[in-house]
């Protein structure tokens, strides 16, 4: 209970403050997480990857149109010192009218531009469809 009504009608200092402080802390942490997620999401090439696979004939045949990617997805980014590229790996769940699948992405950023070294869709039935690269 966030509020407690006491029979004596007096103000009791300190009661209820810890709950308010923890709620405030939770809201701050949640805000930082959401802003960080949205900033990270806006810098990744996930939209272009989704557009490419959603238009690929083999993917459409396997999953069924329309194909949609989930809003939340797994990603891992790192800097590859030998090549000088920023590398990102993503796994994005897909849904189609026939079946679902997972889009596996490996992208690199060089000179401010993103490129794909691997784009692969794995359907629920186990079929793998390589759109870009050699898996």
Task: Write a structural description.
The chain is 33% helix and 35% strand. With 135 residues, it is an alpha+beta fold. The protein has 2 domains: 1-43; 45-132, Mitochondrial import inner membrane translocase subunit Tim21 (Nuclear Transport Factor 2, Chain: A, Roll). Strands 1, 2, 3, 4, 5 and 6 form a 6-stranded antiparallel sheet that branches. The longest helix has 27 residues, at 17-43. The mean pLDDT is 81.
Which helices and strands occur, and which strands form pairs?
Elements: H1 17-43, H2 46-55, H3 57-63, E1 68-69, E2 74-80, E3 85-95, E4 100-110, E5 113-123, E6 128-132
Pfam families: Coa1 (PF08695)
Keywords: Membrane, Transmembrane, Transmembrane helix
InterPro entries: Coa1
Give the tags:
135 residues; alpha+beta; Nuclear Transport Factor 2, Chain: A; 2 domains; 6-stranded antiparallel sheet; 3 helices; 33% helix; flat; membrane; transmembrane helix
């Amino acid at each position: 209970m966030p509020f407690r009504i006491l029979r004596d009608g007096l103000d009791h200092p300190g009661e209820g403050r810890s709950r308010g402080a923890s709620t405030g802390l939770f809201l701050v942490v949640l805000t930082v997480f959401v802003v960080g997620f949205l900033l990270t999401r806006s810098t990744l090439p996930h939209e272009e990857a989704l557009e490419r696979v959603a238009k690929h004939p083999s993917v459409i045949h396997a999953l069924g149109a329309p194909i949609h990617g989930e809003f939340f997805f797994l990603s891992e980014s790192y800097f590859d010192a030998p090549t000088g590229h920023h590398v990102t790996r993503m796994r994005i769940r897909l849904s189609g009218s026939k079946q679902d699948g997972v889009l596996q992405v490996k992208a690199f950023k060089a000179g401010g531009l993103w490129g794909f070294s691997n784009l692969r869709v794995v359907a629920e039935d186990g079929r793998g469809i390589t759109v870009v690269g050699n898996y």
